[in-house]
Amino acid sequence: MNYENLSREELIEALEEMEKRSIEAEKESSEWEEKAKKAKADFENYKKKEDERKERHKEQAREKLAQELISVMDNLERAIMSADEDSTLLQGVKMVSDQLYETLEKKGLQRIDAQGEEFDPNIHNAVETREHEEERKILEQKRPGYMYGEKVLRPAEVVVSEKTGEQEE
Predict the structure, then answer these.
(1) Can you give the C-alpha Rg of the chain in angstroms?
(2) For 40, what's the count of Cα atoms within 13 Å in the CB-facing half-sphere?
(3) 51 in helix, strand or coil?
(4) Sheet with 109-112, side-by-side order of all strands
(5) CA pair distance 44, 164, nearest whole angstrom
């Protein structure tokens, strides 16, 4: 547009129109900027949730593997208990058992050793009770329990003490 031939009123009118367009363009630009910020935040939230989901799946897979290997460890323990003390095979089985447990321990598996501890129904399963001078004390562990992180995969099977009737009086 050629502004040289316009009157003063026409120039003022053209200037006002340009200012109006400029304000509208700034407003539209601001709206797009806000939409872009929102889209970026949404994507970052999605990415964070997806990373958390992937980590949960990995943790569940590790936990499941640990759960499945508990029976392998039980079988190795049975083989150790039934073998002749002087057997070289026994030594090899013990080494394999120890190595397996050490590997799983590094990955978060923990054996619940209950012998002599106070009975805790969250991590122990009482399979038998016996009279004793102390109550709720674990007298014997029948089968070890296992935890993965904070989760009990299998409670320890234990013999728990209970006070005799005479001792309570």
Answers:
(1) 36
(2) 6
(3) helix
(4) 109-112, 145-148, 151-154
(5) 63
Write out pLDDT tens, residues 25-66.
999 999 999 999 999 999 999 999 999 999 999 999 999 999
Letter for the amino acid at 143?
Answer: R
* Span 78-91, pLDDT tens digits: 989 888 887 888 88
Secondary structure element (H or E) that encloses residue 139, with its range? strand 138-143
User: Structural domain boundaries of the chain?
Assistant: 61-107, 111-169
Quick one: pLDDT at residue 76? 92
Q: Is the pTM of this model over 0.90?
A: no
Question: The domain 111-169 is classified under which CATH number: 3.30.70.360, 3.90.1150.10, 2.30.40.10, 2.30.22.10?
Answer: 2.30.22.10
